[in-house]
Amino acid sequence: MIIIGAILFVIGLVTGLGFLWTIGIILLVIGVVLWLLGAVGHAVGGRRHYW
Question: Could you read off the pLDDT of 19-32 as tens digits, one per residue?
Fold first, then answer.
């Protein structure tokens, strides 16, 4: 999710499409939050680790 968010963010910046930029940032934030929750040991979606 982090990689897809980064790709959409960059494409949105390069092409000037605001909705891609916005979706990219949202996916980046969600991906980082899930990654951090998994890294500290909280179960995310029934899994102990989130990759």
Answer: 998 999 999 999 99
